[in-house]
Amino acid sequence: MQTIANRFDRIMAGLDRLLIVLSIIALAVLVAVIFLAVVMRYAFNAPLIFSFDLSTLLFAWIVFVGLAIADRDDAHMGLDLIPGLSSQQLQDALITVRLVLVAGLSAYLAWIGYQLFLRTGAQISSLRISARWLYAAMPVGFALLTLSYLGRILRHLVAWRR
């Protein structure tokens, strides 16, 4: 079980690095597009038609991919109720239940997002791309979060067995 957890951690670390690089690029493009849109509108009185749609698309991807990045850094909000318990076994059991519940919720939200993705047939006219590119952010983000929580569960179970 330890070797599986180590392999999973290595794969997730590589995926995290890739996601961080892609998020930085997306954020830089987002800032550049919004800056260019403001300059074009107020300096040249010629608004960029695609700026709103592209910034919405990039923002959605940054937010949903950021779920997995924030989980890696343990940056999601939470309550510190469990560490105050006296029994270590009770703490470990409650942490396992919490991790399984959140992983299940993330998997369910990935499924719901996928269903929404499948139902979308519209086109983003200013970009001339399918709106599925926008709606794909939710299932991808929550699937990545589910993978992250599965890694946490593996690490927790390995540590619990010691």
Write a structural description.
With 162 residues, the chain is mostly helical. The chain has one domain (2-161). Helices cover 78% and strands 2% of the residues. It is built from 5 helices and 2 strands, in the order H-H-H-E-E-H-H. The protein has a two-stranded antiparallel ribbon with strand order 1-2. A hairpin with a 4-residue loop joins strand 1 and strand 2.
Low-pLDDT segments, ≥5 res: none
Beta content? under 5%
Q: Give the tally of β-strands.
A: 2
The main sheet comes to: 2 strands, antiparallel
Could you give the order of strands across the largest sheet?
1-2
Radius of gyration, rounded? 20 Å
The proportion of residues forming helix, as a percent range, comes to over 70%
- SS field, number of helical segments: 5
N-to-C span: 12 Å
Number of domains: 1
Which outline best applies? Answer: elongated
H/E topology pattern: HHHEEHH
Indicate the structural class. Answer: mainly alpha
Mean pLDDT: 90
Features:
elongated, mainly alpha
List the helices and strands and how they pair.
Blueprint: H1 2-44, H2 51-72, H3 88-119, E1 123-124, E2 129-130, H4 132-135, H5 137-161
Antiparallel strand pairs: 1-2
Helix pairs in contact: 1-2, 1-5, 2-5, 3-5
Summary?
The chain is an all-alpha fold and 162 residues long. It is built from five helices and two strands.
